[in-house]
TrEMBL record:
Domain MIP18 family-like: 11-82
PANTHER family: FE-S PROTEIN MATURATION AUXILIARY FACTOR YITW
Organism of provenance: Bombilactobacillus mellis
Cited SUPFAM superfamilies: Fe-S cluster assembly (FSCA) domain-like
Protein name as annotated: MIP18 family-like domain-containing protein
């Protein structure tokens, strides 16, 4: 079996993160715009992301769910999360799907 490229694995990680929902909003992390970057190198995935608010009470829950989803992908052994606050998250980062789901109309 051919080993997947890092780019292929990054695409699989993005797809896996579409299955990880914010428990309060019921929308996945990708559509919420919380994921800023995904990089895979040498079987390690590094995710740069933010949260909707500092001190989010769900941070530990999301951390666990993300790591479980990512390390379930064949070819990834480790997941590191780089939590950043710049650029700050805003509703401008929501996808069209998330906007419709939350009832936000432009």
């Amino acid at each position: 079996m051919t080993e997947l490229s890092d780019k292929d694995l990054e695409n699989q990680v993005a797809a896996a993160l579409e299955e990880v929902d914010d428990p309060e909003l019921g929308i996945d992390l990708i559509n919420l715009g919380l994921i800023y970057d995904i990089q895979v190198q040498k079987r390690t995935c590094t995710i740069t992301m933010t949260l909707t608010i500092m001190g989010c009470p769900l941070a530990d829950t999301l951390d666990k769910q993300i790591k479980e989803a990512v390390t379930a992908i064949a070819g990834i052994d480790e997941c590191q999360i780089n939590l950043v606050w710049e650029p700050a998250w805003s509703i401008d980062r929501l996808s069209r799907y998330a906007r419709l789901t939350l009832g936000i109309h432009d």
